[in-house]
Design goal:
alpha+beta, four-stranded mixed β-sheet, 5 helices
């Protein structure tokens, strides 16, 4: 039953995984690197680092997750953020194609309630809680 649940999670998250693989593959063409760690495919350095840096506040982003793909700045940033990003992988397995709309709507809701758009998002709070509660610092 666990194997079936794992396969279903992979398939359910696959639309975002495909996008992550595309971005990571382009990053490889421009000096990036890739490795597999557990259930994640991690891309970093080169073009991947360039891409992450160009996101809003990208210089502060260690890594971001799309399905089962983690796009990181460096191998060290991936090591630091691995537990946090693993929570996001599990969220993609639960939410599938609804993940990013739910994430964005959650951020909007907390912002309209006078809270922090990113740090008070329930998806981030869950990830930070698993990573030692860094969101409150």
């Amino acid at each position: 039953m666990n194997a079936l649940r794992n396969i279903a999670g992979i398939v359910w998250a696959s639309p975002y995984t495909v996008v992550g693989l595309l971005i990571g593959s382009i990053g490889l063409l421009f000096g990036g690197r890739v490795r597999i760690m557990g259930r994640a495919i991690e891309f970093y350095d080169g073009g991947t680092k360039w891409f992450v840096h160009r996101l809003p506040n990208g210089q502060f982003i260690l890594a971001l997750t799309l399905g089962h793909v983690i796009l990181g700045q460096t191998d060290a940033s991936l090591d630091v953020s691995r537990k946090h990003e693993a929570v996001h992988i599990a969220q993609y397995e639960r939410w599938g194609p609804l993940m990013l709309p739910a994430y964005f709507l959650s951020s909007c809701f907390v912002y309209l309630a006078g809270k922090r758009f990113y740090l008070d998002n329930p998806f981030e709070r869950e990830a930070y809680d698993m990573d030692g509660g860094e969101h409150d610092r």
